[in-house]
Each structure stands twice: as structure tokens, then as C-alpha cells.
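Look at one record.

>
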Amino acid sequence: MFELDNPTSLQQISLPIFSENKVEVLMKREDLIDSEISGNKWRKLKYNLLEAQDQGYSTILTFGGAYSNHIAATAAACKRYGFKSIGIIRGDELNAQSNTTLEQAAANGMDLQFISRAAYQNRSDVTWLQTLTKKHEAFIVPEGGTNALALRGVQELVDEITVDFDTILCPVGTGGTFSGIVNGIKDHQRAIGISSLKGAKYLEDLIGELTTASSSWELIHDYHFGGYAKFDSHLIKFINQFYLETQIPLDPIYTGKMMYGLIDMLKKGKIPSSSRLICVHTGGLQGIIGFNQLHNDLLKI
């Protein structure tokens, strides 16, 4: 259960700006893990589902927004590995036909339960979670999948990297994937997280609590493009051009912002020359269909 046949590949990216700055950039293609359970979602769910199985649970309950990669991946994983699934969905959507993400989650058997944004704020409330556990006899996986079990799975992607490197970059949402990466790097390496959220200074404290290593890491808050799921024409143009030049699809919420940030930092001289960089592609491509439906096919990938 949840074993990869082979480590995900490291793909070298050849762009003029990289050679001009004398840096080597390799992308860890986590998006290629699985067509439905891709990227960091596979890593985060692996030990959560194994723990649920060990504890005798047959139902997984989790939380997410209407376009959540985590919701989509959890539904697919539960179907594949024999769990029932329940998704508590934040916002104004009323049914599974709201968008392709929810449609696919429902098609994979997830029981979608829609609650208000106000009620969704209780998702970390211990008493409420205990009530949900008892009511549904469910193993609860937190929003985004971030917990100690998730970090254990994410750290394995670092263990798979057999080449030495100076810096590893990762997009940051809840902070779980980045924390697992920080736990996995060596003392001479550093990790850079590109936050997709506006005003998310709390992430430094959260990551500090989740990480056990003293390794060098930093969060960059300059490339959120207005906040979670926000974008502008510059980001869309960049993602389309990047795909044209590399044939690697990026999403506009996480990986697109990471790569835009890397190239901007190179232009500003913030990345040392002669560095070898690993960029983690965290997946998230399932949301592109829904994004294009909302925004008149802006992404040409």
C-alpha cells in the first residue's frame, strides 16, 4: 500500500537565465507520481492512511476548499485503498456539480458536506473534531494533510535525491510539505519556501514548531500575487511561456509562483552563482481544468 515503484525523476531545466547565472536547476517531478494522487498529496497521505488502517478505521474525514488538491487526492486514495471518505467543504458551494474538482471527488465516492466559512473556522477545534470522529467513526486528516505523519512522508522525497545540492525550493501553503523537506536536508543545504498566501507571517512560527532540524531555511513572501489562488497577467504569461520552453506544466496557485519567484530572485542576484538547485513540483495540476473553465482557458497547457 502506498509504495512507489521508483523515485520520482529529477529533470534538468535548461533556460538561458540559468546558464547566464551559472546555476544548475533540477526539478523533482512529484507531479508524475500518480494521475490522481499526485505530488505532495501522495507523500502526505501515505502514513496517514497506513495509521488509519493500523487503528482499524474504515473511514477518512478531511477538510478543504472547493478546488482543493487535497480533497481530490484524498477521495482518489480512499477509493483505491478501500476507505470510505468524507470531505467537509468550505464556502458557498451547494453540491458536487460546482466544479470539476468536487465532481471528481464525488465520483470517487467522497461524501461531500458543505458548511459556511464561519463554521469552517472550527476545523482545528478539538471538541468539534472529537464529535466528528465519534459521529462518523472516522480517522481525521487535517486540512491540507499537514501533521507529523505527513512530514514523515514528505521527508522521503528528500531521501530519494541522490545528487548533492545547495538549495531546495518548494511552494508553501499550509507549511507541511516545506517542514518535511527542512527535516530531510543536510546541514550544508538550505531550503527556500515560496508562500502562496498573503500576510502569512504566522508560517514561520508554525514551521519552527514542525521542524526538528537546525538546518538553514527561509520563507519568501514576495510572490503570492495577492493571496491564495490570486494571480495576474504576468503570472499567467510566465506559466504559459515556461511550458512552451520546457514542456513542464505548472499550476497558478503553487508551482507557478515558486518558479516565477526563483527566476525573479536570480535576476536580483539573490541566488549565488555556481549553485545547484532542486525545485519540488508539488503537483496540483488537477485544478487547471476548473481554473480554465472559470477564466476562459488562460492557461495553454
Remarks:
- The longest strand covers residues 84-90.
- Residues 93 and 137 are 25 Å apart (CA to CA).
